[in-house]
Amino acid sequence: MSEEQPPILTASMHDLRHFATILRGINFNNVRATVTILHRGLLVKVEEARTITATAFIFSDIFDEYIYHSENQQNDNLMESSQGELLDNTMFEVSLNTLIDCLNIFGTGGPTSSGTGGSGGNKRWRKQGEGSDNESGEENEARGRGRRIEPISTTGSEKHTGMHMTYAGGGYPLTLLIAEDASGPTTTCEISTYEPEPQLDLDFDNDRMILKIILKSSWFRDALSELDPSCDKLTFVSNPPEMTNNPRNGKQRKGSATKPILRIKAGGNFGTTEMDYPNDRDVLESFECTRSISFSYRFTHIAKTLRALQSSTKTSLRIDDEGLLSLQFMMPSPKARGPEGEGAQAFIDFHCLPLDEDVV
Amino acid sequence: MRFRAAVEAVSVFYKITQAVEKLQKRFIIKFTPENMHIICNHEANEGGTQVWSQIKIDSIFADYRIQSNADNQITMAISSEALLAALRSASASSTSATAYQVEEILMKLAKKNDRAVLRFDITGTTSVGRRVKVTHDVLVDVMKPHEVAKLAEPLCPDPDLHILLPPLQKLRTIVERLRPMSDILAFRANNNGKLQVSISTETARVQTEWKNLLNPKLNEEQAEEEGEKDLDKIFTVHVSTRSFLKFLNSHVISTSTIACVCQNHCLILYVYIGDATDVGGVLTFYIPAIIDGD
């Protein structure tokens, strides 16, 4: 069939660790993921308990080769606009566990990769610290990144596992060809695909946003990992910075002494834990809050984000007026990038509905 | 009945025990004047895998003395866990500097409270130079000659092919990933160096393929026959993924492994111990085929 009609998707990469790390970040227990193929890349989405969704955005430029032959060719003119591009997609469902196990078949997409990803994240974190120390700004930092990331990826593992992925269309399996090197074994995986089922859409409307925080993932990770796993409820409390203070000025923390600008509260059968973040630009890169809020979430749901959080570099936390929580994790990219590549970094997006306080 | 020996290569003994320990709670050791045979033939063990092995006495023991009324052979049933614990105590201390340096390990058949035990006497010196003696008594059941006579290796047809497996450690990683996907694993190979390990379920079909592996010729007669056969013909045997994974536990000891496929009958695996030039022994795994594969 490939002779007459090119497959809908052909993608390949020489090192699949990055891809595997991102997918592992959204791996809830034994759920099917909905994969959406777009011209710009892949969108992989999972959902649990109709409360939490996780979406990974994997842009086409992390693949060495990425060709999408849309079935809807008549929409050519629509594709011009970005809206059209979003409409021009192909969706299917696939078992995420199986996909991840297949990617890790040689044990090379495994925890080692998240380990190196983690250390890469730490290095980058330090670099950004340096970047903000000297005022020379973004460009300097990006160049430093390009120079210094290279040794990490080469020392991480001597051997790269390459992958070639094709999807021929509805009813066909997702085919993966995985090989470690030319002399070694090759693995062919055909993973069954399913018709996509209607998805839970937890869209975050920026107009209704109350709280928006951007912080380094390590700050958020450290806070969450402090918490006892027996907690069942996690509450985010946030207050606008005192109006007398200039909210942009991190040096003045008078307001935060009385009313925390961000407090994470965890409660369970054995007690409660409270953690306050200072209004310091070194900690919270940006902080916007329009009114005081307090929303609670099930801890087990928030805990599902930990794996993605661990391999990410930066976190954006947003909450809207009904308590819908959006957590976006920027994933470190395997390639050295120039400043123009920054916009296309892969990221993982979690949306979580709050607990109904009246019931709980 | 007399039996005593010094355990020279305790790590080899330990690793062999480790390789078969997962298979059965109790297994049989048969000592003859030349060889040690470890046998796992329990019907009840999961998947029906059997292990028959032959290890040269020289590769593990020294000062080996054996005497019995049954052709100077002694056969005993022993708990794998208890034997492993005794050997661990003997081998771990020889590597770690904390406890004591092992100088000598003596193994002998003894009697304790009217029951037969395999006694391991470990002597060594502590870091301050004091002598220590550690004794492990592992309870054994010495088998009677008529019981031993009943032990028989499984009968298999002439294998369709022999193939040298890639390093078991690597194979194990792959099979570990396949384990959650399917209970049945297809093992395919041909006489032209090709090996395929695959699973096939509703959710996924995953196949890993090796090329350019060796097809060892066991004897000349077979080599002649081979000329007439179609080298590219693939022979398949379906086995339990879990059983195959248990065989792969022998990666700790193996240097090279040869697999034989008896199509629709069984998979036979010869795990060689020691250098290729000086083979100290061989563990033979028989994994029965699952016929209703697909």
UniProtKB/TrEMBL annotation, chain A:
<dbReference type="GO" id="GO:0006281">
    <property type="term" value="P:DNA repair"/>
</dbReference>
<keyword id="KW-0234">DNA repair</keyword>
<dbReference type="InterPro" id="IPR046938">
    <property type="entry name" value="DNA_clamp_sf"/>
</dbReference>
<comment type="similarity">
    <text>Belongs to the rad1 family.</text>
</comment>
<keyword id="KW-0539">Nucleus</keyword>
<feature type="region of interest" description="Disordered">
    <location>
        <begin position="111"/>
        <end position="163"/>
    </location>
</feature>
<feature type="region of interest" description="Disordered">
    <location>
        <begin position="238"/>
        <end position="257"/>
    </location>
</feature>
<dbReference type="InterPro" id="IPR003021">
    <property type="entry name" value="Rad1_Rec1_Rad17"/>
</dbReference>
<feature type="compositionally biased region" description="Gly residues">
    <location>
        <begin position="111"/>
        <end position="121"/>
    </location>
</feature>
<protein>
    <submittedName>
        <fullName>Rad1-domain-containing protein</fullName>
    </submittedName>
</protein>
<feature type="compositionally biased region" description="Polar residues">
    <location>
        <begin position="238"/>
        <end position="249"/>
    </location>
</feature>
<dbReference type="GO" id="GO:0000077">
    <property type="term" value="P:DNA damage checkpoint signaling"/>
</dbReference>
<keyword id="KW-0227">DNA damage</keyword>
<dbReference type="Pfam" id="PF02144">
    <property type="entry name" value="Rad1"/>
</dbReference>
<dbReference type="GO" id="GO:0030896">
    <property type="term" value="C:checkpoint clamp complex"/>
</dbReference>
<feature type="compositionally biased region" description="Basic and acidic residues">
    <location>
        <begin position="140"/>
        <end position="150"/>
    </location>
</feature>
Automatic annotation (TrEMBL), chain B:
<dbReference type="GO" id="GO:0044778">
    <property type="term" value="P:meiotic DNA integrity checkpoint signaling"/>
</dbReference>
<dbReference type="GO" id="GO:0030896">
    <property type="term" value="C:checkpoint clamp complex"/>
</dbReference>
<dbReference type="InterPro" id="IPR046938">
    <property type="entry name" value="DNA_clamp_sf"/>
</dbReference>
<dbReference type="GO" id="GO:0006289">
    <property type="term" value="P:nucleotide-excision repair"/>
</dbReference>
<comment type="similarity">
    <text>Belongs to the HUS1 family.</text>
</comment>
<dbReference type="GO" id="GO:0033314">
    <property type="term" value="P:mitotic DNA replication checkpoint signaling"/>
</dbReference>
<dbReference type="Pfam" id="PF04005">
    <property type="entry name" value="Hus1"/>
</dbReference>
<dbReference type="GO" id="GO:0005730">
    <property type="term" value="C:nucleolus"/>
</dbReference>
<protein>
    <recommendedName>
        <fullName>Checkpoint protein</fullName>
    </recommendedName>
</protein>
<dbReference type="GO" id="GO:0000723">
    <property type="term" value="P:telomere maintenance"/>
</dbReference>
<dbReference type="InterPro" id="IPR007150">
    <property type="entry name" value="HUS1/Mec3"/>
</dbReference>
<dbReference type="GO" id="GO:0031573">
    <property type="term" value="P:mitotic intra-S DNA damage checkpoint signaling"/>
</dbReference>
<dbReference type="GO" id="GO:0000724">
    <property type="term" value="P:double-strand break repair via homologous recombination"/>
</dbReference>
<keyword id="KW-0539">Nucleus</keyword>
<dbReference type="InterPro" id="IPR016580">
    <property type="entry name" value="HUS1"/>
</dbReference>
<dbReference type="GO" id="GO:0035861">
    <property type="term" value="C:site of double-strand break"/>
</dbReference>
